[in-house]
Amino acid sequence: MAAPQVNYSRFGQPVEDDRVKPTKEEVAEKFKLITRNLQEVLRPEVITEILERGDDVKVYWGTATTGKPHAAYFVPMTKIADFLRAGCEVTILFADLHGFLDSMKSTFEQLKHRCEYYKNVIKATLQSIGVSIDKLKFATGSDYQLTPKFTLDILKLTAECSVNSASRAGADVVKQNQSPPLSGLLYPIYQWLDEQYLGVDVQFGGVDQRKIFVSAAENLPKIGYTKRRAHLMNPMVPGLTGEKMSASDPNSKIDLIDTQADIKKKIKKVFCEEGNVEKNPLLSFIEAVYFLIHPEFELKVRDQPSVMYKDAAAMRADFAAGKIHPADLKDSVVDVLNMLLEPVREKMAEPDMVALTAKAYPPEGKKKKKGGGGGGGGGGGDKAAAKKAPKAAAAPKAAAATGSGTTNTAHPDISRISMKVGKIVSIEKHPGADSMYVEKIDLGEGEPRTVVSGLVGKIDMEELEGRMVVCVCNLKPANLRSVKSFAMLLCATGDKTECLDPPEKCVVGDVVTVEGFGAAPDDNIKPGSSKKGPSIWEQCQPGLGVDDNLVAQYHGLNLMTPHGPLTVKTVKGAAIR
Asked: N or C: which end of the chain has fewer CB within 10 A?
């Protein structure tokens, strides 16, 4: 064992250092793992010095919590896997305020839910490539970026930095237009300070971050932060159109929750010109992701034995020479993507994640329409955010029950019905119908919906006011005696009528799903007709009921909230309508 090293405290007294100094070979091996497959490394000597001391290199990677993560996230994830294998201490920063500053893509309320969404997706992504996350940390920008000290540092930097230099620093990251908001100038300044406040040695990002990295080294010393840091830059992997893979362009990306059919359809349309290796997103993805995870890539050739490749250079050479047909490459990439995404799809189909998705990603570009009737009335036009959840990605229980492996197909698809937890904030008698109430129900949408329900004489008004309920939200609005109803209040009806009871921890807006179905609701369900047949609601409703344990079910599968199943108090065997 090597002799202990000696260092000196600030008082000048020798202090024994029990760290074992690594060998040159160990330093070189870790350095190679940390820096492999990168496009550029700024100040690599910083990493070498830390490794030679025997310390762990502290790295951070930040992501603005705006659009949904997509398959391009495997590119930074595979490098983060390298950092972890090299013994680095890795922090993933959820830059929620950056997400807001970047042309205010998201509201603050959405950002809170999106940070949690990103955390779950990133964990599932790393685990899908076989990486231990024991040394992985998560941080949220607003936890420290709203402190007085950070705010003062922002003001100091705005005094030291010109408008032109701030604009140039963020030019490749922040959206530019003819009249940009002032927030875009703050975006790079926040990122400069992140390095300091997270206490890291290295910042990692794509090469599009280069101007921010360089300007951080130039500007932080101006306010007294002189620590030298390294900056690591990944190449930009082209999207399916041959350009940068973008969360805002659905045609350029593979979503992490895309079904096998979705992936096959998208890959079929990918630009993959025979012999063209300069602009080939499939080869780029295999090089930047797959070969960092697996030693060999299996190219499946139609009607012939597979060909095994041990490096991307050989694949590129064979593709350039016409030895690999684009159709064979596409088929093989489809298999790779499905292998990588299956654990992520399973995670995102869990009821808690379906509900979280609905909160984190409400419909964009439109105001939510008010929705439908109550107690037998109509429903509302709620284009739920959960529509973007994977329609074919089912919970494991359903796959086992149906043998499909993806979704429950034994009964009408209740995932098309939007059901949410709400709270009755006010109630009164219908002015034109003695058997009906008119309620205002808060469903977490900013303003309550008006709901008409035929519950007079069945449930007392006092019992309904202020209580949590469950509503169907995407039926077509219905006029009930001159009052328009925008949701249907669900009740269990047997010997008596009772509202469905959400668990105590539920909040307004929580999505209700059925085990095995997830949530992918239609925009607006119109009533059935003799010509078109029954609506999806009319098909599903007969399968809703209460079991002997007082649990609300659909054909024996529980109606679930993020905090557990829906129940009733007393009416066993009741129908739900």
From this structure: N
Residues 6+ apart with CB under 8 A from 184: 101, 102, 103, 167, 170, 174, 175, 176
Burial 308-317 (b: 16+ CB within 10 A, else e): ebeebeebbe
At residue 80's C-alpha, the angle toward residues 74 and 83, to 5°, is 150
Domains delineated in the chain: 17-234 (3.40.50.620), 250-348 (1.10.240.10), 366-576 (2.40.50.140)
CA distance 536 to 514: 15
pTM (2 d.p.): 0.57
DSSP 368: P
Q: What is the pLDDT of residues 344-390, one digit of tens each?
A: 888 888 888 888 888 887 754 443 333 333 454 555 444 333 333 33
Residue 65's nearest CA partner among 102, 97, 96 is 96
3-state secondary structure of 244: strand
**Residue type at position 92:** I
Q: Going by C-beta distance under 8 Å and a sequence separation of 6 or more, which residues neighbour residue 569?
A: 498, 501, 550
Contact 95, 194 (CB under 8 A): yes
Query: In this structure, is the dihedral angle defined by the CA atoms of residues 59, 64, 69 and 71, taken in order, positive or negative?
Result: negative
Q: What is the 3-state secondary structure (H, E, C) of 495-534?
A: CCEEECECCCCCCCCCEEEECCCECCCCCCECCCECCCEC
Residue with tokens 């990918």: 270
DSSP string for residues in 2-61: PPPEEEE-TTS-EEEE-PPPPPHHHHHHHHHHHHTT-SEEE-HHHHHHHHHHTPPPEEEE
| Cα–Cα distance measured from residue 267 to residue 261, given in angstroms and rounded to the nearest whole number | 10
Dist CA 66 CA 60 (whole Å): 19
Give 38-81 pLDDT, tens digit per residue: 999 999 999 999 999 999 999 999 988 877 888 888 889 999 99
Mean pLDDT over each residue of the chain, to the nearest integer: 83
Question: Contact, 543 vs 411, CB < 8 A?
Answer: yes
Output DSSP code: residue 207.
G
How many of the other CB atoms lie within 10 Å of CB of 221? 13
**H or E element in which residue 96 lies:** helix 96-101
Q: Give the separation between CA 442 and CA 424, rounded to whole angstroms.
A: 6
Dist CA 176 CA 4 (whole Å): 55
C-alpha 173/C-alpha 218 separation (Å) is 18
Report CA 322 to chain centroid distance, whole Å: 39
